[in-house]
Specification:
1 helix, Methylamine Dehydrogenase, Chain H, 40% strand, 1% helix, mainly beta, four-stranded antiparallel beta sheet
Length: 363
């Protein structure tokens, strides 16, 4: 069976893991790639004969950059001119790349990049160069977007497999914005989403959305982890309904979905308030198999005692294997993998730097 590639971005470099076959054998890890650089974003583009890895790394000395590898991390290429850069007339500069998202099969060379400050860039050459999406930057509501605790950023990009021109982004703290014309125009789509930290708790925009994940069967169904609340949309983000009942906490950062089974999503709850630890100090992933009507804790193989590792917004992911693998990394520097869709877990590695993002794919 095919190997699985696991990419783990940390505050001090990128680590790559590889395991042959599904669910058998130990992981072989290499790294750190880009030591002492914070890797906030990784994309694994499997639309090519050999997958391309894209990494958004941030050097405190040289600044942020996007690297790419076409040999599974054996070598890396950095363009001579920054791949992602703000036009001079914006009066701003790139702080970091929060998201590198290959588009669907209808746009085989398109890769989207979400950044801090909150902006969107589009590549039409597989991530070698990126063009500034001025329409989102010039949206009349942008100047009123807030900044979450982690900064103001476009941290999520979701594409529609049916329509390459349909793109959804999440902004912290701006909310959800949708484009139906390939990014030429944008409309905010936050109906039903709560902003518990604002006087008007259901504003048109200004919500602190933490992550969005699309359903693999119904492209109009989206799952969303908010700053307070887990939500589902059945109309491509036009409206949202709460589905967090049955979870020990509806706060959290991450949400992901199964690669093939409709109605299956995963979250890692975090207690809101002053502690921001897993509820009851227990390391638990929760899965729904009925689109959020109920939730099941998944803890076989995870630590039984008190545990304080928090999973950030991009550090819970699935691969595209059958059965699906599920992966998460936490701020303790631990990475766990499940080869059976979350039913049981294996510790891949520990004592890494703070884990910022995780990606996995069959290669």
């Amino acid at each position: 069976m095919n190997d699985v590639l696991l990419a783990v971005g940390t505050r001090k470099g990128l680590f790559l893991g590889r395991r042959g076959g599904r669910g058998s054998g130990d992981w072989e890890l290499t790294g750190p790639h880009f030591p002492m650089q914070a890797v906030y974003s990784v994309g694994i583009d499997t639309r090519r004969a050999v997958p391309r890895i894209l990494a958004g790394a941030d050097s405190s000395h040289w600044g942020p950059s996007v690297f790419r590898s076409d040999d599974l991390g054996a070598s890396w290429h950095e363009p001579a001119r920054p791949a992602v850069r703000f036009p001079e007339d914006t009066g701003t500069s790139l702080e970091r790349v929060w998201q590198l998202q290959p588009a669907g099969p209808g746009a085989p060379e398109v890769v989207w990049a979400g950044t801090e400050p909150g902006a969107l860039f589009r590549s039409d050459d597989g991530g070698e160069t990126f063009a500034f999406v001025r329409s989102l930057w010039e949206h009349p509501q942008r100047e009123q977007w807030g900044a979450g605790f982690g900064g103001q950023a476009v941290h999520t990009v979701v594409t529609d497999p049916r329509d390459a021109d349909a793109v959804t982004v999440a902004v912290s703290s701006g909310g959800v914005y949708r484009s139906k014309d390939g990014g030429a125009s944008w409309a905010c789509s936050n109906t039903g989403l709560k902003a518990e930290f604002l006087p008007d708790q259901y504003p048109e925009f200004g919500q602190c959305v933490h992550k969005i994940a699309p359903d693999p069967v119904d492209p109009d169904r989206l799952y969303l982890q908010n700053h307070g609340g887990v939500y589902r949309s059945d109309d491509a983000g036009a409206s949202w309904s709460e589905i967090g009942k049955g979870l020990p906490a509806d706060f959290g950062f991450a949400v992901t979905t199964h690669p093939r089974r409709g109605g299956v999503a995963y979250v890692f709850p975090v207690s809101d308030g002053s502690d921001r630890y897993p509820p009851g100090y227990r390391c638990r992933v929760y899965r729904t198999e009925d689109a959020g009507a109920s939730w099941q804790p998944l803890n076989t193989g995870l630590p039984d005692g008190d545990h304080y590792g928090v999973v950030l917004r991009d550090a819970l992911r699935t691969d595209d294997a059958d059965p699906a693998g599920v992966y998460f990394g936490n701020r303790n520097g631990e990475v766990y993998a499940s080869a059976d869709e979350g039913d049981s877990w294996q510790l891949v590695t520990e004592h890494l730097p703070d884990v910022l993002c995780v990606r996995a794919a069959v290669i």
